[in-house]
Amino acid sequence: MSSGAINRSYIKNNHAMSHFFLVLLIILSSKSLYFEMFGTNIFTIFTFIIVFFVFFKEKKTIRIDVLIFGYLFLLVSIISLDFDIKTFILMLIKTITVIMLISIIKFEVFSLHYSKIIKFIAFVSILTYPIIFFKLSSPLFNFISIDERIHENFILFGVLDNHIAHGVYRINGLWWEPGAFHFFLTISFLFDFLYERLNKRSTIFYIIMSLLIGSTTGLLSIILILLSKNVSRLNLIKLIYLVIILFFIFLLFKYTNISNKFDLDSSMSLLSRYYDFLISYNMFLENPLVGYGLGNQIEKAIPFGIDLLGYNSYFSLAKPTGSDGITMFISQVGLLGFIFAFFLLFPNYGSVKISTLGRCFIALALLITFNTQNFTFLIIFNVLVLYSFSSWRGLVYHDKS
């Protein structure tokens, strides 16, 4: 079904607004500033209640294979004897929520709503630049993220006080930092790409937003997705040249002095992510079958990291932050984690024709996206994995009531 057909049919569909609201809730429940400000557990439970209400209002049913696969999330929560009970309860709520959600909304429709919401947030967030330039403040209460960073509240987006004070021109939308916002922009771009909703104007918009956000890994992910469609017709030399040129443009746009790219902060960020991976990799090797327990990063990964890296290295400017979402998830749940990683990285939805090599490019883009921002413990991860499972089962267009 084409996007145009979906748009026309949805105008006549009484469920359109409720479905749009459900997608908005999923986005906000994925660690947005509202999610962090008003209580993570409260927001998760509220989303569950709304999805539950819509599910029964529309008299939907659940396929048994989706139900069984969905409850694999619960299995990985308790497979280790050291599982965290709070993590298990939240996983139960998220799993039931998503199982109902994918019975309510077809994935193409979900992706369409998702992209519209993210592009709207991105567009209005451009106002971040004049706000920083003129050092404006909001009369509303501040957003305060879990890491206690203060953001000026402009309802549809937040602006870090630190960025205003020091003239740091980067956009973070409704999330705690720019890289987290680019995570959602990358997923939106992927959805539009896979369903052939991109044109020159929208592609330019995504690239400009990527530059305004200022995320190197985010731009790399978008480049990989763009290359995935025609990669079989490109030779390696042309591919390398293209990547170099695009990154050179990015560097010129983002920095007044290109050498700043290699300053201490950037080096520390790269080293911090390397430490994250190193800790997860070594913890996985210690217990590859069942992992060290979902939700036990603070109790186990931090002490392990201090022993592995040494106190001084761990608490240096390159302190690990646990941003390696996929590798951390696998190290916590063991070998079963690779099943979820496969469905996350190799979705089978979309209408665009892509070669096997192109699919690998998309997988690499998703790996970079999820392993530089830790969203594997949030509902967006469950949503993408379960929708991908449905796509492999041929259920993407299934809409049986």
From TrEMBL:
Transmembrane among keywords: yes
Record keyword Cell membrane present: no
TM ranges: 16-34, 64-81, 87-105, 117-136, 179-195, 204-228, 234-253, 326-349, 361-389
Keyword list, A-Z: Membrane, Transmembrane, Transmembrane helix
Protein name per its UniProtKB record: Putative membrane protein
Organism listed in the record: Vibrio parahaemolyticus
Gene for this chain: wzy
